[in-house]
Write a structure and sequence with these properties.
Its main location: membrane. InterPro entries: CcO_II, CcO_II-like_C, Cupredoxin, Cyt_c_oxidase_su2_TM_dom, Cyt_c_oxidase_su2_TM_sf. Its EC number is 7.1.1.9. This protein is of the alpha+beta class and 335 residues long. It has a domain of 176 residues: Immunoglobulin-like (Sandwich). The protein is 45% helix and 16% strand. The chain contains 8 helices and 10 strands. The radius of gyration is 28 Å and the shape is elongated. The structure holds copper (II) ion (CU).
Length: 335
């Protein structure tokens, strides 16, 4: 495949050089009736090909899109995304069609003269005002969704979790019984205290450090992100969540998980996706894959960036509570 791409690239470069040199050799060339016809028809053919390719891509590659949102907030994000995409698609379909159609329709024909049309204030007003109003509407709608998603202040008893990024892994810390994270600083990192938790802070003692993120379904989770070294980006695609992890500061994102891992595994789109992946894996002789939510790094942060991930398990609240009760607190781990 790579060899084929290189060959194609070499051909394209060769054609480009040939075209450029032949332009330099031009003296004066007048397009004939036949040239104009050929170019016009080629435009029409390319237009049809272009739409065909677009429809083909929709049908063939929709499967690689993410399955349904696994968080409540993700649903409004998805609606915003859909509205934007449908608008873009409609405008794109009309304008591209007109572009190709006019290039074909008004190709050079002997004795046909172009109409000299200087300007029309009415037309210019329409094509300026309509996009401005539509775009302003989209921006306002986007802002209101953003404000809704980013403001967790109305949540009742949210779960507070710290997500800690470093080259090249993730760690997490639950706020424990008091639901308040203890202070932390990179200077406190020592031995088993890998997140630099300040053990002199009384809020830190009941914090629970983990290497696998578990979240309760239906309870708002407020994530506090920190980074030990460089910029990372905490990306939880199934929940439609992403936030930069910046050294020296705490960033935040919140969402309410709405589908447990088990429920997501039974989702039609997930099943179709997993089947597709397993077909490829079977051909390569690899193990079968089972769906799991993931926290990924979405900022190119170094050589092993691609492998910086942590499994997320969403479960019913009582299962989560039973699990967290059995985890060791910072006081138990460090002392
Ligand atoms: Cu990273």
């Amino acid at each position: 495949m790579t060899a084929l791409l290189y060959i194609l690239l070499a051909i394209v470069v060769a054609v480009a050089i040939w075209q450029v040199t032949s332009i330099l050799n031009f003296k004066s060339v007048i397009a004939t009736e036949k040239d104009n016809n050929t170019q016009g028809i080629l435009f029409a053919v390319f237009g049809v090909f272009f739409y065909g390719l677009m429809i083909f891509s929709f049908v063939k590659y929709s499967i690689i899109l993410l399955p349904d949102s696994a968080s409540v907030e993700g649903e409004s994000y998805d609606t915003l995304y859909m509205v934007t995409m449908v608008l873009i698609l409609v405008v794109q379909a009309i304008t591209q069609f007109l572009l190709f159609y006019f290039a074909f329709k008004y190709r050079g024909i002997k004795d046909r003269k172009a109409l000299f049309y200087a300007d029309s204030h009415k037309l210019e007003l329409i094509w300026t005002v309509v996009p401005a109003v539509v775009l302003a509407g989209l921006v306002l709608y986007g802002l209101s969704v953003w404000v809704d998603v980013m403001d967790p202040s109305d949540a009742e008893n949210p779960l507070i979790v710290e997500v800690y990024a470093k080259q090249f892994s993730w760690e997490a810390r639950y706020a424990g019984e008091d639901n308040e994270l203890g202070l932390a600083n990179v200077r406190n990192i020592k031995g088993i205290n890998t997140m630099g938790v300040d053990m002199s802070d009384k809020n830190a003692l009941d914090d629970i450090p983990v290497r696998e993120l578990r979240l309760p379904k239906g309870r708002k989770v407020i994530f506090k992100f920190r980074s030990q070294d460089v910029l990372h980006s905490a990306y939880m695609p199934h929940f439609r969540a992403q936030m930069n992890c910046v050294p020296g500061m705490v960033t935040q994102f919140a969402f309410t998980p709405s589908l447990t891992t088990e429920e997501m595994r039974l989702n039609d789109k997930t099943i179709a996706k997993v089947d597709g992946i397993n077909k490829i894996r079977a051909e390569k002789g690899e193990d079968t894959y089972e769906f799991d939510y993931l926290l990924l790094c979405n900022k190119i942060c170094g050589s092993s960036h691609y492998n910086m991930q942590m499994k997320i398990i969403v479960e019913e609240e009582e299962d989560f509570n039973a699990w967290i009760k059995n985890q060791k607190t910072m006081a138990q781990v460090v002392q």
